[in-house]
Fold ABC transporter substrate-binding protein.
Amino acid sequence: MNKYRTRALAALLTVGAMFVSTACGAGLGGPASSRAARDGVIRFTFAPDPIWDYMHDEGIIEDFEKETGISIETSATWDEFGLFAGGHADIISSASFEVPGLEAETERATVIIGRYNSERSRLMVRADDPAKSLVDLKGKRLGVFTSVSGTLVWHALVEKMHRLAIAGEKPDFKIVVADIQNLSNLLARGEIDACICYPDLSARELREGGVRALYDGKSSAELFADLEAPGHDGPMGNVFVAREDWAEEHPREVEAFLDLWSRGLKEWRAHRDEIIERYPQHFAVESPRYVEFMKSYVAEHDWVVQDIRFDKRWADDESKIFDLMRETGVIEADVKNPKFLPTAGDRR
């Protein structure tokens, strides 16, 4: 077994369908290039994304390519690891806390070059449940969508806060693995008692008041900051990860990529409501009333970072998630932290 994977989470079943849609975004098409890395080209593989689609549709990416002379070969897939392992991508996205696993699975040295959004999952219960924390739900049915991703972080947090195990040989809950898009609905119907859910995939139940989030509505990232890194905005649900050798050999392309995404984050801040309206599929909403709800929710709980770039202090704080996961047995003691490439502020 990959020693990055926790013994405690190994008992969880593999989930069959982890995502809402596998449709390509407007700006991400076709299979990734099979050609080798080369100067002036960035082979970028990313799951369908609203900010990227907006930049594509507004001509921002086309203008970027003309101005820099750098072309971006893109592909939309949920199997970013697979393309990365096959050598068909220079940059992909991953949760920061999954990067050691990415390296172990693909046998490729990596470096984190940029940040994108924080781990946004919440621990939810039915609105009429009096539970104040997971302590009140010991022995009950906890819905999860995967043994990795946000579940890794929640396992570490729950172990740290309450000395309770989400899974393993003697879990303190009855674990129910279900499709990510159905968890909040199962919760509202009473088929499970709590879930690790994403708010954008729970818009209907949240808007209708059928479910609520524990811990004052805080995400796993916010709880992590409270416990381990005050003021920090991670751990990240998505960072941009490059092959280490490619990043070292293509500093111009790395800088250009970060500049492009800096523009993307600026566009998000300026046109967030419009982006949600134009690409509701990325937020798992359809009808106008749920689009309006999502716009209001994201305005209060925006998980997209302010700046794609980071300094060494931020990287050190982000690395504390690995200290927590080692402390709580989520990963083995000898698993190394991922490498970071600070490009802002103090880089020492």
In short: Residues 1-26, 28-34 have pLDDT under 50 and may be disordered. The longest strand covers residues 110-118. The chain has two domains: 41-119+234-327, 122-228. Residues 188 and 210 are 6 Å apart (CA to CA).
